[in-house]
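Pilot study result, target chain (70 residues):
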Amino acid sequence: MFDGAAAYFCSLSIGEVEQRLDPQRFARVHRSHIVDVERVVGAKFSGDGGAVELAEGERYTVPEGDKKTN
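Predicted structure:
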C-alpha cells in the first residue's frame, strides 16, 4: 500500500482490500493497484493499457489495464 508519502505492507490480497473499500471512491485500475478516484489528475492510454496519474505532493503514476482478479 502507498498513501502518497510512505509504503506499507498489507497481508490481505488486493481482492480482499478491494472488497473492503467504497467502490464509489476507489477503483481497481490494475491487478496490483487500487486508486482513490479523487486523487486522479490525469490518464494516458495506449492500446489496451495506459497509466493513471495521481496528485500527491509529487505526481505518482500507476499502470492501468490488466485488471485480473485474485
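One observation from the pilot: The chain has a mean pLDDT of 81. A full batch analysis is planned for the follow-on phase.
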